[in-house]
Every structure is written in C-alpha cells, then in structure tokens.
Amino acid sequence: MASTLKKKSFKIEPFKHPVKQDPNYGEKTWKVLESAIHEINNHNASGLSFEELYRNAYNMVINKFGDRLYIGLQDTIRKHLVEIAKKIDAAQGEGFLRELRLRWGNHNKSMQMIRDILMYMDRIYVKHQNKTPVHQLGLDLWRDLVIYDSSIEGRLRSCLLSLVQRERNGEMIERALIKSITTMLMDLGPDVYRREFEDAYLTKASEFFKVEAQEYISTCNCPDYLRRAELRLKEESERVLHYLDPISEPKITSVVETELILNQMRPLVEMENSGLVALLQLDQNDDLQRMHTLFRRVPGGHDLIRTLMGDHLRKTGRQLVEDPERNKDPVDFVQRLLAEKDKFD
Question: What residue stretches are annotated with the Cullin N-terminal domain (predicted)?
C-alpha cells in the first residue's frame, strides 16, 4: 500500500507582499544603543539587558548599518571623555592624580561592557573595514582627549615629578598612586609613557644627581661619598620596582652612574687623605671593594684604578729599594718587600 502512495511535492511560494525594512531602523536602533552607552558611562548599567543590546548591535551590522554604529560609538565616547577631562582638571593638589586614577578605572570598566555589547561588530565589521577595535579605540580616545588635553598633560607630568623629588628628599609619598598612573601610561603605549613621564623623569634625575654629586664631593671624604652613591643606586632601583615600568631601570641606573661615578671618578680617587692611595695605605679593604664595585659600572673605571694603583705600587717599591737603611738589615728589607707584594696580591 505504501508503495502505491504517490509522494507529494511541496513548493515554497514567495510572500505576495515583500517585507519592507523600516527606513529609520538604523537610526532608531542606534538611539537605543546610544542610550545604553550613556547609562554604562554613568554607572547605571544594572537595569540594562545586555542580551537585547547585543542583539540590536548584531542586527545593525548584518543590516549594513555598521558605519552608523561605529561612528556613533566614536562620537559618544569622545563627548563623554571631553567632559571627564574637565572634571579631572577641576581637581586640586594630589586630588588631581586620584581623580585621574578613578576616572581611568571607570573608563576601563565601561569600555569592557561596551565591547561585550559590540562584540559582533568588533569581530566582523571592524575586521573587514580595517577599523580600530573597540578596546583600542577606548585607549586611543582616552590618550588623545584626556592625557593629551592641554590643561592636563603638563600638570600630570609636573605632579609625578614632584612626588618623585619629594621622595628623593626623604619624604614619604603614596607610591601606589604613582604606580597606578605610570601603569596607565604604559597601557596607552610605551611611547606615551616615554613622552608623558620617562623623558622628563630622566632629565630631572640627571639635574638632581649632578647637583648632589657636587655637594657630596665638597663635603664628604671618599669612603662616605662611595657609600652615598651606592645608596642612591639602590634607592633608584627600588623606585623602579615600586612604581615605574621595568624599561626605565637601565636608563635611570645609567643616569646615576654617570653623574655620581663617571663624572666624579678622578676627584674621588685623588682625594687627599681619603682617596685611592690613602685607602691602600690604611688597608681599608671594604672601601676599596666598594670603589672597585662602583667603578666597574662605568667606562674607564677599572683603568683609572689600575693606573693609579700601579703608580702607587711602583713608588712604594722604589722607596723600599732606594732606602739607604736597607743594607743595614737585609732580612728586614726582604720581609718588607714580600709584605708589600702579599698586600697587593
């Protein structure tokens, strides 16, 4: 019986009246998303349906409204950050850096939520149109509209350098605050970190240690100077560890080495009553070791020590050999000569 049944064919007919898209669909949908972005930026996201918002953004992209969505996002974030920059600039004293830190944290949280809503746009439209991804767009706009703002840029640099200077002078500062700002600058890109902070930081450090070297060289003996230089190198290394980016360590170390050691080597080794010869004569081995360790960090340091030590050794040996009393007690003469050799060995 089943074999006698004829198979029925089905034909799908097109709609008699084709579905027409609302000509205002793109603009209406964008307004919904724009309102949601405003709510996110104003910390009122709890009442939003992220699933519905994602679907709206998805539909805009597949219905060829990706341009409207992306341009609208740019304009909305730009307007928001212009207002944020004004609020940051209005803060006073160290409150300026705290306000910047707070607003930066809020901006990152908001952009994360916005990126989640616009994930499909990020994956399809942004990729195909070679646009800046949402996360990077948020960073770029923050950099251009907040960090590079004419009222903020110089003030930011000045505040950071002032805190570092105060710490070098012995004051206690809020290291975590500086760390949050330098981390922000690195998140915006190494070039931003260098331009907005590191270049000026190294310049100010060079000026500071140049002055300090002159003060030390005029008030300290050689061992005291070496101990202070050693301490400064340690402090700057710790400073990098606590609130700078690691890329700054070799640069600031080079600045300290240049100003405190390289540029002061000869005055140090030639100091009367406490320079290299005096340390050798007094067997101050700890200080000699410190000098050796510090001088090895800079070009020509060991050569200078070697030259002066060789001159001193030859002078000492010559005095022993030419001593007119040496023939009176040859054994004592040989013992003194061997003692000098053992010492320098």
Answer: 30-345
